[in-house]
Structures are given as structure tokens and as C-alpha cells.
Specification:
- With 702 residues, the chain is an alpha+beta fold.
- 23% of the residues lie in helices and 26% in strands.
- The strands form 5 sheets. The chain has a 7-stranded antiparallel β-sheet. Strands 1-11-10-7-3-4 form a 6-stranded antiparallel β-sheet. It has a 5-stranded antiparallel β-sheet with strand order 5-6-2-8-9, with no helix packed on it.
- A hairpin with a 2-residue loop joins strand 16 and strand 17.
Length: 702
């Protein structure tokens, strides 16, 4: 589409009740990012209340009409997806505006390939629109869906705002008061009191009155920085400052408080530590793969049906509407002379319409079988099912399908195929009960029991656990220098590495309640197969696997390097130098922040064109000035690194490579990165917008 163009959705597809809107962008440096928001507008072009504003801290509508699904990495950047159920949009809503904004000093002109794509529930793209004239704008309306004569249409807008999210929100009936800029980095931080607002927040009040169904508490809505943690519901105050702890980000006020589990477990009443707490889903008796698959499927589908927030979270991306969900296991379906029994069936009803899915489950690292999934695709097509969902320990990668299936183009009814990993299931459950909250305490307890079951050593649902048969031959070939470029086994190892990094992001993001995404660096237009082949050749030549993770609230990008020649894992982060102050004060402050970090932490000063001073934290603590270059050259930043021996086997055992990567990332984040995050890092500007001074290696993450 071209800017200003519009098209009726009914002319593009017969099934546009459920849509997937994807906003994408790329950055040559890998540092660019943006956050999606959706506004629901009435006939007057204004929001009815602040409940009509959906963003990173208010990601889903109670009626299921809007759900922000978060970011997924692509070959050159990232893609933010929004699930829209147009059949659930209230009648008084005339337009849905889809926008994105950058925080701090970020501008859309710094990003490449700005685009929006609209797909139907099967995932088939219906239309696309690219923005080529972005400049100094910090917020952009990509497009809007609007009603016209009873039909939904899409308009390609491409309108930017140099005033950011505040300017965009103001246009649609939200009054925004920006907070003052933070103090310079070299100044001492003032003592914080309860009257201080969240850092980098904007206070907004909806001016349009809401209907009784959508009304929320009167009073200001705080829009925190995109790296905000879980929303906290706080009643409106008649006057005076909002009595919340200093610098704690908050989300939009809601009429009903969400329930999350306490961080500290209640004291046990057991007489001794040998007593085992009764569990809703016992796992110790499971012995065979068949038993594990049956139990895991039943447990998951039962919790999905009983906890609407969780069931909706897992199925929204597959085109399911928000409605009454029922789940079934071991259902027999006719298939010629041999009936088939998929592991599960999901049925969602809304407004008299039925959405259905077949579920095929694998546990304990067992692979999906193409012929089995193909049978279910054929059965679904014949019986009018919307989708087939595969569920296994494996993590799906773009451009590398887990199973190959053929679709009959002559069939009018389309069936979509989606994959879900056990790591993603655990990630979503963790986000809900630890950070975002669910409707009541019983739902939180059910999710906690599900998590306990998934993490049990006998459940078989531990996520990606095996680097594959190519791992040992490739590692041996690198050690003996006999591995040649073009070896297909090296490509298989690169794919396994990408799956592992994806899983690390899911696990860490669930624990922190923050977005953790792999950074991908590739030339624009490079397809996934070519990119992985290039990385495989680099692995053969250099003997190293590299990855980068972008974590909200951190002052840099976390880099991971696995050197197969030396058997060492390196985790590192580059912290940019503050824009103000003196180098000696930077070094002192950095060492002070790392008071609890390991003594063997390597600290290196980054200077342009040469290697700067370096040493272990143990040596630098009494003399931080040793980090300053003797010739007085400008300092670009500091690199902090920890080294660890990596596992030798391909699996997740005590001596396994996968476990060693998990342990290295956990140790580095907890002992180093978390301290930088808590104290704001050497500079107090938003961490997600701070550009790193460079990377230790050319890193490409999965």
C-alpha cells in the first residue's frame, strides 16, 4: 500500500474477524527499538477513557479485542505483533489506531525498514505498508482500522510526531504532563522520597468520560518507561502526592487488582525437610514417554481452560478469539480405516462462533514426526478445524521449520500450523504469576502448580535440552582443525545455538518480568538460510559461537561467546561512558556499583583505535584510577566480563554445554548486570537507548 491508501478487508480474505498486525523495523547497529501501542477511538476521534489505551504496561483488553503479544526477532531487527479480534470490538468504537513510540533520545529516522503487515488468523499476509520518510519523529502512527458501512477497512497512515508518545496521545483525548529530565550523570542523586514519581514517566489523564463498562478510577494514569516492571493497581487519591515508593514504575489504574504470588515463600509447617508438599500435578511416578505426553497435555490444557488469562495468552497468537474455552485430551477422530487420536483439542466459543485446534505433544526431547503432523493437518482441513498446534521441547526458528508438511491448495478451508515450546509455556506462566498478575489467588496457585510440574525432573517438559548429533563431531573438528567451511553439520550447530539463546531469553525474561530479546546483526535483505550458512563458515574458521541479548533496564547489551577451541564461556557487557563528568569519577562510581561483584570480574576501558587499561576487579578496587588511559585519550566506555568453563557434552546434564550456558548467564546477570541496573549504571539516561561503544566479537543471536 501507499501512504494514505485504504482497502476493505473483506476484499482480501473471507476470514478477517481475527487479525495479526505486525510492526517491524531493523537497525544496522542492533540497538534500535520501539514499543507498540493501540488506541480505541469513538466517532469523535477520541478515546472513551484511559482503558482504551493499550501499551507495554496495559497489554490486553478484557474482552479480547486487543492483545499486544510482544516482540519476536527477525533476520535484521525485531517485529512487534498485535492480535486484534474485530468481532469483539465494542460497537461504539469506530477506529483502532496502531502506533509505535521510542523512548528518550530515540528517533525513527535511526531505524530502517519501518513496515506494518496485516495477516488473517491463518497467518497469511493480506497487506503491507512501508514508511520510508521517517526522520526526527519519536512516535509514528503506522495505520488504522476503521468501520465504513458495516465493513472494516485499513488505512496506511504513516504520520509521525516529534513530540513522542505524549504528542500522539494528546491528539486522541489524553492530557499528558511530562516529568523533568533526570539530573546529569556526574551529579549525586538526591535522596528519594515517596513523593517522587517514577523515573522517565509521563502522567496522563483521559479527558473523555468512559461508559460504565469501561470506566476506571479517576485520577492520573502513569505511563512508565518501556522497561517498566509489573503494573501495580493503586486507588486514586483526593489530593497530594501519590503515595508509592520512589522510582517504582506503575501501569494504568484498573478497576480490579491483579493477583501475583509473593516473592518470599511462606514458612513451612513440616516437621523436617524430608516432608514433600502435596502437589496438584504429581510427576515422580511417570516412567514412559507416553505417560509423560498424556500427563503434560492434560495438565496444560486443564490449566488453560481454568485460567482465562493464561489460555488466552497462549492461543491469541494463533488466531483464537477471546471467549469460553474448553479443552479435551485423547480425542478419537475418524481417518479412513485408521482413526487418529491427537493428544488434545482446544475449542473456543464467542458470539456463537467456534474456533478449534488440534494439539500434538512431545516431551523428553522427542522430535515431532512429519507424517503424524501431516495426518492431523489433513483431518483438520476435512473437519473444518482452524489450526494444528505442535508442542515440544524444541524452539521454532524462522526459516527452519521443525516439520515439513504439505497443504492442499485446492481446499477452500485453510488450516494454519503453529508451534509452541515448553519454554514458552513456562515463560508465560511465570510472567503472569510473578509480574503481571491474574484475576484471583486460585488462578495464581494453579499456575504455580503448573510451573512446579513443568520444572520437575520427571515431567519431560524442560525445553530445549540437546545440541543435536552434530555437536560432538563439530567440536572435535574445531579442536583438531579439520572442520571445513560449507560443512552442513556446522549449520546444524548454529541452529541449535540459536534455539538455546531463544530459550535463555524466555527463561530470563520470565524471571525478571522484562523483555529479553536476542540481537540479530545481518545485512538488509539477507535470508535466514544464507545468514546461518555465513555464521557456520565463521564457526569453522574462528571456532566461536556468539550471541547478544538486549535486556530492558540494562545499560548495554549482554554478549555471550562460546570458544570451542579453549572450552571457555565469556559473558560480557559494555557500559557506555557518561556524557558529563570526569573520567576518574566514572571509574570510582563503576567500582562502587560493583561492590558485590566477583573478584575475578575483568574490567577493560574502551578507547578508540586501541585497547585500554584492564584488570580484575580485585586489583582495581583499591585503585580505580588504574582504569584511566595514561595518554589521556577519550574513554568510550567500559567492558565487564566473566569467564567460565563450558560443558563438554551436548545435553543438559551436570557436565552439559546447555547447563553451562544457563549458569554463566545467570551468574553474570545476578552478580554484575543487576547491580548496574539497580543503581542506574554509570549514566542515568534510559538504558535501552544508550548505544554501546562496540562489541567484543561480531555477534549474531538467534
Amino acid at each position: 500500500m501507499v501512504k494514505g491508501g485504504n482497502v476493505g478487508l473483506a476484499s482480501l480474505s473471507e476470514d478477517t474477524g481475527s487479525l495479526m498486525v505486525s510492526l517491524g523495523w531493523s537497525s544496522a547497529s542492533g540497538d534500535g527499538d520501539a514499543d507498540v501501542s493501540v488506541l480505541l477511538l469513538d466517532a469523535g476521534g477520541k478515546v472513551r477513557s484511559d482503558a482504551d489505551f493499550y501499551f507495554y504496561n496495559n497489554p490486553a483488553a478484557a474482552d479480547g479485542s486487543v492483545q499486544l503479544l510482544g516482540k519476536t526477532p527477525t533476520a535484521n531487527g525485531s517485529e512487534d505483533r498485535v492480535s486484534l479480534d474485530l468481532t469483539a470490538v465494542p460497537d461504539e468504537v469506530e477506529r483502532l489506531v496502531v502506533a509505535a513510540s521510542q523512548y528518550g533520545t530515540g528517533r525513527f529516522g535511526q531505524l530502517d525498514d519501518l513496515r506494518v503487515t496485516v495477516a488473517d488468523r491463518t497467518g497469511e499476509a493480506l497487506l503491507g505498508f512501508s514508511i520510508a520518510d521517517a526522520g526526527e519523529e519519536s512516535a509514528f502512527i503506522f495505520g488504522e482500522l476503521y468501520r465504513r458501512a458495516g465493513e472494516w477497512k485499513f488505512r496506511a497512515v504513516g504520520q509521525g510526531y516529534e513530540t513522542g508518545l505524549a504528542g500522539l496521545a494528546t491528539d486522541f483525548g489524553i492530557s499528558v504532563d511530562e516529568e523533568e529530565d533526570p539530573a546529569p550523570a556526574d551529579e549525586e542523586e538526591p535522596e528519594e522520597t515517596e513523593a517522587q514519581p517514577a523515573d522517565g514517566a509521563a502522567t496522563a489523564t483521559a479527558t473523555a468520560a468512559g461508559t460504565p463498562e469501561t470506566a476506571v478510577d479517576a485520577g492520573p494514569v502513569v505511563i512508565p518507561a518501556p522497561s517498566a516492571a509489573a503494573p501495580v493497581a493503586v486507588p486514586a487519591q483526593p489530593s497530594g502526592p501519590d503515595p508509592v515508593p520512589a522510582r517504582q514504575p506503575r501501569g494504568p489504574r484498573t478497576a480490579k487488582k491483579k493477583i501475583t504470588l509473593p516473592k518470599v515463600a511462606k514458612k513451612s509447617l513440616a516437621e523436617n525437610d524430608n516432608w514433600r508438599q502435596a502437589r496438584l500435578f504429581p510427576a515422580p511416578t511417570l516412567k514412559s514417554d507416553r505417560e509423560r505426553e498424556m500427563r503434560a497435555t492434560s495438565v496444560l490444557l486443564a490449566v488453560m481452560a481454568q485460567v482465562p488469562e493464561f489460555g488466552r495468552r497462549l492461543t491469541a497468537g494463533f488466531g483464537a478469539p477471546a471467549g469460553r474455552m474448553q479443552t479435551f485430551t485423547e480425542v478419537t477422530l475418524p481417518n479412513g480405516d485408521t482413526p487418529r487420536r491427537p493428544d488434545g483439542v482446544i475449542r473456543v466459543e464467542r458470539a456463537g462462533k467456534l474456533w478449534t485446534a488440534l494439539v500434538e505433544t512431545k516431551t523428553n526431547g522427542n522430535s515431532l514426526k512429519s507424517e503424524q503432523v501431516q495426518d492431523y493437518m489433513d483431518i483438520a482441513a476435512r473437519r473444518g478445524y482452524e489450526t494444528v498446534i505442535t508442542l515440544s521441547n524444541d524452539v521454532a526458528l524462522e526459516g527452519s521449520p521443525l516439520v515439513e508438511v504439505k497443504t492442499d491448495g485446492r481446499r477452500k478451508h485453510k488450516v494454519s500450523l503453529w508451534h509452541l515450546s515448553w519454554a514458552e509455556v513456562a515463560h508465560q506462566a511465570q510472567l503472569l504469576i510473578r509480574h503481571e498478575g491474574v484475576g484471583n489467588a486460585a488462578h495464581a496457585w494453579l499456575l504455580q502448580e503448573l510451573l512446579h510440574y513443568l520444572h520437575h525432573e520427571n515431567s519431560g517438559c524442560h525445553g530445549f535440552q540437546n545440541m543435536g548429533p552434530a555437536w560432538v563431531p563439530v567440536r572435535n573438528g574445531i579442536e583438531t582443525e579439520t572442520l571445513c567451511q560449507g560443512d552442513e553439520r556446522a549449520v546444524a550447530v548454529v541452529e541449535s545455538w540459536e534455539r538455546l539463546i531463544r530459550q535463555v531469553c524466555l527463561r530470563l525474561g520470565g524471571e525478571l518480568g522484562q523483555k529479553v530479546l536476542p540481537v540479530q546483526r545481518a545485512k538488509r535483505g539477507t535470508d535466514q538460510a544464507s545468514r546461518r550458512a555465513e555464521l557456520a563458515d565463521r564457526l569453522c574458521e574462528e571456532g566461536r559461537l556468539t550471541a547478544e541479548l538486549r535486556i530492558d533496564t540494562t545499560p548495554g547489551i549482554l554478549a555471550i561467546t562460546a570458544d570451542l577451541r579453549t572450552g571457555k564461556l565469556r559473558t560480557s557487557i559494555e557500559v557506555p561512558a557518561p556524557e558529563q563528568g570526569y573520567p576518574l569519577s566514572w571509574a570510582k562510581r563503576l567500582v562502587r556499583q560493583l561492590a558485590e561483584a566477583p573478584a575475578d570480574l575483568h574490567v577493560e576501558t574502551l578507547v578508540e583505535g586501541n585497547r585500554g587499561p584492564r584488570g580484575t576487579l580485585e586489583r582495581l578496587r583499591p585503585e580505580p584510577g588504574d582504569l584511566l588511559p595514561k595518554d589521556g585519550v577519550p574513554i568510550a566506555g567500559f567492558r565487564l566480563s566473566l569467564f567460565k568453563s563450558m560443558g563438554s557434552t551436548r545435553g543438559n546434564a551436570e557436565s552439559g554445554f546447555i547447563r553451562s550456558v544457563d549458569e554463566a548467564v545467570d551468574r553474570f546477570y545476578a552478580s554484575v548486570v543487576a547491580h548496574l541496573t539497580q543503581s542506574g549504571g554509570p549514566e542515568r539516561r534510559p538504558a535501552r537507548r544508550a548505544a554501546a561503544a562496540g562489541t567484543a566479537e561480531a555477534a549474531v543471536a538467534g
